[in-house]
Design a protein that fits this description.
4-stranded mixed sheet; 9-stranded mixed sheet; single chain; 18 helices; alpha/beta; 23 strands; 36% helix
Length: 567
Amino acid sequence: MTETLRPDAPHWYSKVEAPERVDDVAGVAWHSQADLVVVGYGGAGVAAALEAREAGLEVIALDLATGGGSTAINGGVVYAGGGTAIQKQAGVEDSCEAMFQYLRGETQGVVSDATLRRFCEQSAAMLDWMSARGVKFDATRYDPKTSYPPPGYHLYHSDSSLAARRAAIARPAPRGHKVFTPPSRAALGFGAHITNPLAAAAAKVGVRLETCAEARRLVVDPSGRVVGVCARVFEDDALRARYAALQAQATKYTIMLPPAFPGAQFTLAIAGWYRRRAEALEHRRVLRRIRAKKGVCLSAGGFVFNDAMVKHYAAKYAMGMPLGNPGDNGSGIRLGQSVGGVAERLSHMSAWRFIRPPAGLTWGAIVDGRGERFIDETVYGAAIGYEMIEHHDGRAYVVMDQAIFAQTLEQLKSKELYSFQSGPAFLALKFARTKAATLKALAEACGFEPQTFARGIAAYNEAAHGRAEDAFGKAKHDLKPIVQGPFYAIDIGVGSKLFPLPVLSLGGLAVDEDTGAVLDASRKPIAGLYAAGRNALGICSHLYVSGLSVSDCIFSGRRAAQALARG
């Protein structure tokens, strides 16, 4: 879906205002000015700011919080390949061509082949660029399929490349580079080991950061060129610090538990209390005009925390668990649209149904609400989530027998698992299950179509016994017969309260793929306006794999800065 929209539209759902039009740029009472103004200081914003400053441009960055964005609180994974220094150190053989061929199947033309190939060819150098600026990586390699590497491991397969049909297209290689961190079993925050060093490097070379600043509208000249930003900022440092502390607490409690999880109503109530106290200070902010002599880069994240936008564009994902931070409110996208920028794929979101580890959950058969199997259970979690929501009404179950069930419970005792992996899986196995003595009784209890379910499980068992090829190409060693009663159906659908489904938005502003310039309805660049990260349509805007969004942030942020530096 391609959309042009203005701030007076009934489904604008944003505080972003119509642009301010000025006749004489030199005559405006600018509060400050720089060559580049960056709106949003997460992974994409800090990459744009640092790259531009090192190229000699003056840079001012604005952030609704204190910087880092959703990149700072994620898993800290960077997707890179083609022979990175870390891959070579770990003894991994990879090529840009293999990486390109694999990603070509995942991206499905969301960017041109030329852009995708450039991304692959530059990814090793991108990792070197990050390393040279203080981001630490490590070559401890984890080869088995997993959603996230165990503590102490940092290089792993963060995608579906090990799945049999994908491996037949391109040789697999571990391309998930988890940033090096001290040993920890925390569920969030590893990404700060990416954003903090880059922000420190940016500050060292003179990037000016204005925190707790809300960009409300763009400023354009008579030709339509974007020449600045109007933002609401705190002038009093103590007041700004107080506001930041309250918002940080609000964010902490907002993301503490999935919204549908038991106890979430209490943590969300606490978050609301802190947020209201912060909002009570907002009238103390003042409006400032910041001139952008060369351009503005929008890098303020997606919109998954804007409930109204999610329900309008992607209602079938609304029951999922928002993944990111409350600053992902769509303001960057709306700023671009306010001056005629075109947004695309806003209805396209990513849903993460990770079921491995434990490995046992991938040994069963995933079926939909009709009882029909629909996917290779070993593919990456976002591929399962996408297929489940887009084509199977958001309903899915893992069907297993007693032997698989018992082995899966035993696997949950492994010290290799993080609590965010073992906890939801345990609750799902214990409390989000339907149990029956026979497969026929299980179908009846779950409301499956009896013949559809029986036919699918029979075919699955034929493949598991080696008498037929699996219909979805699942590798033989991951096929386990479902024959020993009692039988179980584990609810892994979007509505499963005890097995939360993380979701995030992937759509954004259409951009020129060579420069990152925002495009208007006629596909022409809007002078002075660029977008990066989840504000822009990019490499991961079709299907997410771990680390690809962060890589796209760095890639697209630097691309915009390089275009601005070229003039």
